[in-house]
Each structure stands twice: as structure tokens, then as C-alpha cells.
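Take our chain:
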Amino acid sequence: MKKYKDGSRGFTLIEVLVAMGLLSAVLLSMAGFIAYGSHLLLKTEQVAIASHILEKRIEDVRSKNFDEVSLLNTSFIDDDFSRLQNAQGLCQVVNDSGEDIKKVTLSVLWTFRGRQMRRDVLTLITRGGVDKK
């Protein structure tokens, strides 16, 4: 800060430019954090939507009897797919460790900012009930 002959004080042009440069650097870095946080929030929201779809579908699978589960080896649709870009649901049924156990894998695939995203859940279905070996 410079002191003038009349007793007044003021900032020099160099001091103002340095302060503006520092302020610009801080604001730009904060803008990057905000953009990244926004990206992360949207991605988390979409993963939560996919998880919710899978929760509904896995309950649907678990409500079926053992023989009906064999017929599920296909894709599925859900009303919430409209909230995800290019969403599709897949159901895969595999005989696991013999004739009395089936492994059911449910997947939701979608596109998020040009990247393929995937969320999976699996359960075991036996003739005696769910998840019993």
C-alpha cells in the first residue's frame, strides 16, 4: 500500500493485479471442484436408480418357485429405465452345483456421459427356498 503526500493511502496497480490473479486462481480451482462434485452426484444418483431397479427385480425373482426361475433367462424392462440413458436389463440363470441350485444374476446396463455403466446383483434359488445350499 502506498502513502501519498496528502496523507491518503491506496493500492498500486501491481498490488491490484497480483490480488486479482490470486483470486482468479482460487475461483477457477473452486469451479473445478464444483463441476467434479456435480458429476459425482449425478453418477451416484444413477447408480442408486439402477440399484432400486435391481432390488425390485430380485424380489420379483425370489417370489417365483424353482421351476419358474428357469424361464427367466432373458432381458427385462422397468418403468425407471426412462431415468437412465440407453438402459437395459438382463437376467441370467445358471445351474450352480447341481440340479437343485440355480444362480440368478440380474444386471442393469446404461450409458453415463459416453461410458458404459453396469450394476449387478445375484442370488441363489434352491428347491428348498432362497439362498439355502
About this structure: Helices lie at 13-62, 66-69. The chain has one domain: 10-130. Strands lie at 2-3, 9-10, 75-76, 85-95, 101-112, 115-126, 129-130.
